[in-house]
């Protein structure tokens, strides 16, 4: 048996190889992760990446995989490559047998009667589900501070945000509480947390992974995707969850490309990589800019052709996003009305009508950020303003798509920093919604245009020693290019660092013990 | 475009079925005014000749065979309901004059 501490630091690909070679059992691996969650996730200064831990079911699935492997024969041969490798699931994605809260009081204690398609696929691959991860309420936020169940803490510095909305999934992976996780990305909710926690995350092409069973925020922007510690691991997970699903009418009918093979190509010679002029420089932290430039230099040395492209309409992308997203969210969240599921709050006095019950339920069940976005969306869609706001924003969407088309005529892949800054302090931007929104300035264009994006760690910023994310963008349906370039850049960077970036993160258990002793 | 004020927020909150206290209306009106101001350049970005995009990768005529697929039992559909009776969702009076 391998040392537990060593086990949890292995990548999913390494774990899969050890499981297949029967050097370790899935029960051992799953238990090691459950022990890690118990050690670092709870308590006043714990990471708080998990809203629910699924101990019993995870161990049962692990034991089932172990029994199949031990018996050998055809059943063992047919096991999926990732069978027995545990995973965490963002709590916006519905699961039978575990609560789904979306980080909101309005769904506290609710159990879905069905599984999301991606969850069905994890089950078919026999991957033990460790639990559900924390998020900003209904995925609305960039810091996980808008969760009704308390913020998640960044494993690199427990006083800082892990990004959002998928801070729970990113922090779980960064803190070695899971080797893999599922996230959702509407304006950057997979990529921005990946950037500030030093992990990898991918927003696939819109429609490339089924959204059936992801509680919708903005249906024309939402996308489920993989979260991991290595580029290859994201490709492996993307391959499990991707592909057509008749239950999602926006699901692309195209066959899924071989993303794992793309991650193993190992060269970028002759590839044209485009720097987006508008997505770096002014407004980006110096340390972020420095690491970004180093990555460009490495790619150049590896034979890539670095070109500069301009996307002038990206300056309107953030504004368009904050009209389209709230408009769609206000409509999608109308269903939380205290009738069919979740919370029901009765008004304290006056007539007891259904309208008043809805008003009291939504007042008590939704947090401030959700209310802000519902009101903003209701405003943008209201008569007299529709053309000026929602209509104009949809036109900007066309302009952003045209910018991407022009850029991809000059470059195979585009590159930028993932987020303008490293992780900020908990509470720092909580009362300034606009400052919070600016975190997504580099990630939003991909959602508006439906193109895929990947973030990978680019090193630590000089001024604060915190992780910096590098974003790669590819044309729609060309997700494979992200894995090809991402894997090459990752190996070049790791050769410089002498190992994965997360090796440089402070040891969490000691940090937590110190905090306890200091009290 | 007009600025958003407290009366607008009160009206929108009623439309969106969210009860709001006086203090909440004041705060929300201030925050939303800043946000609306920051997005107003969007209306000047595109000319009349630019078509609107509602979906990034539009698919048309996504049909399936008209056969019964997976459906929930009444019990499953009601499993998360705050209140139910005789296999139905139960709600308070729908009309004011009840």
Low-confidence stretches of chain A: none
What is the gyration radius of chain B calculated from CA atoms? 22 Å
Spell out the CATH superfamily of the largest domain in chain A.
Amidase signature (AS) domain
CATH-defined topology of the largest domain in chain A: Amidase signature (AS) enzymes
Could you explain the architecture of this structure?
Chain B: Pfam families: GatC. The complex is a heterodimer of chains A (519) and B (98). By secondary structure, chain A is an alpha/beta fold. Chain A has helices spanning 4-9, 12-20, 26-40, 55-71, 73-77, 117-124, 167-174, 191-197, 231-241, 259-263, 286-301, 317-332, 354-365, 368-381, 387-410, 433-437, 444-449, 479-497, 508-518; strands spanning 50-53, 87-90, 129-133, 180-184, 200-203, 224-228, 272-276, 305-309, 413-417, 453-460, 467-473. Chain A contains 19 helices and eleven strands. Chain A has an eleven-stranded mixed sheet with strand order 1-3-2-4-6-5-10-11-9-7-8, sandwiched between helices. The two termini of chain A are 37 Å apart. The model of chain A has no long low-confidence stretch (mean pLDDT 96). Chain B has 98 residues and is mainly alpha-helical. Chain B has a domain at 1-45: Orthogonal Bundle (Histone, subunit A). The longest helix of chain B is centred in the N-terminal third of the chain and has 18 residues, at 22-39. In chain B, 21% of the residues are buried.
Q: Keywords for this structure?
A:
heterodimer; A: alpha/beta; Amidase signature (AS) enzymes; B: 98 residues; Histone, subunit A; two-stranded antiparallel ribbon
């Amino acid at each position: 048996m391998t040392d537990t501490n060593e086990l949890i630091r292995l990548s999913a690909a390494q774990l899969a190889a050890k499981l297949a070679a029967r050097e370790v059992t899935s029960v051992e691996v799953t238990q090691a992760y459950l022990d890690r969650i118990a050690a670092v996730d709870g308590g006043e200064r714990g990471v708080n990446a998990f809203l629910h831990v699924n101990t019993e079911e995870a161990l049962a699935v692990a034991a089932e995989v172990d029994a199949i492997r031990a018996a050998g024969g055809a059943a063992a041969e047919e096991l999926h490559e990732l069978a027995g490798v545990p995973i965490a699931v963002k709590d916006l994605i519905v699961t039978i047998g575990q609560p789904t809260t979306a980080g909101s009081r309005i769904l506290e204690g609710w159990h879905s009667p069905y599984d999301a398609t991606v969850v069905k696929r994890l089950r078919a691959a026999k991957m033990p589900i460790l639990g559900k991860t924390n998020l900003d309420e209904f995925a609305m936020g960039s810091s996980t501070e808008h969760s009704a169940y308390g913020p998640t803490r960044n494993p690199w510095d427990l006083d800082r945000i892990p990004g959002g909305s998928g801070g729970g999934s990113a922090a779980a992976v960064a803190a070695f509480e899971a080797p893999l996780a599922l996230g959702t990305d509407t304006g950057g909710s997979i990529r921005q947390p990946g950037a500030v926690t030093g992990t990898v995350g991918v927003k696939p092409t819109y429609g490339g992974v089924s959204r059936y069973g992801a509680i919708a925020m903005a249906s024309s922007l939402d996308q489920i995707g993989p979260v991991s510690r290595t580029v290859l691991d994201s490709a492996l997970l993307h391959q499990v969850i991707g592909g057509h699903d008749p239950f999602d009418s926006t699901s692309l009918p195209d066959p899924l490309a071989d993303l794992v093979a793309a991650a193993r190509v190992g060269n970028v010679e002759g590839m044209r990589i485009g720097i987006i002029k508008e997505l770096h420089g002014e407004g980006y932290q110096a340390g972020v800019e420095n690491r970004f430039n180093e990555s460009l230099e490495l790619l150049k040395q590896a034979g890539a052709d670095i070109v500069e492209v301009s996307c002038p309409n990206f300056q309107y992308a953030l504004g368009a996003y904050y009209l389209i997203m709230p408009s769609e969210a206000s409509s999608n969240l109308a269903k939380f009305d205290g009738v069919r599921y979740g919370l029901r709050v009765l008004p304290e006095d006056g007539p007891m009508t259904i309208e008043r019950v809805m008003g009291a339920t939504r007042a008590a069940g939704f947090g401030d950020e959700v209310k802000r976005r519902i009101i903003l969306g209701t405003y943008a869609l209201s008569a007299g303003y529709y053309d000026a706001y929602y209509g104009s924003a949809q036109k900007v969407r066309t302009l952003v798509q045209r910018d991407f088309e022009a850029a991809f005529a000059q470059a195979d892949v585009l590159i930028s920093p993932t987020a303008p800054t490293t992780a900020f302090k908990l509470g720092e931007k909580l009362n300034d919604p606009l400052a919070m929104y600016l975190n997504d300035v580099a990630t939003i264009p991909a959602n508006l245009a439906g193109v895929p994006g990947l973030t990978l760690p680019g090193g630590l910023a000089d001024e604060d020693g915190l992780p910096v994310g590098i974003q790669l963008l590819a044309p729609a349906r060309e997700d494979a290019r992200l894995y090809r370039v991402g894997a090459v850049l990752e190996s070049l960077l790791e050769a410089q660092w002498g190992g994965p970036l997360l090796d440089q993160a402070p040891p969490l258990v000691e940090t937590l013990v110190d905090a306890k002793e200091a009290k | 475009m007009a600025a958003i004020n407290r009366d607008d927020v009160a009206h929108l909150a009623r439309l969106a079925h969210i009860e709001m206290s006086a203090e909440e209306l004041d705060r929300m009106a201030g925050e939303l005014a800043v946000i609306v101001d920051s997005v107003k350049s969007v209306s000047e970005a595109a000319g009349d000749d630019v078509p609107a995009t509602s979906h990034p990768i539009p698919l048309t005529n996504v049909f399936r065979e008209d056969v019964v697929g997976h459906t929930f039992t009444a019990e499953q559909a009601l499993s998360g309901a705050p209140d139910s009776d005789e296999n139905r969702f139960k709600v308070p009076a729908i009309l004011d004059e009840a």
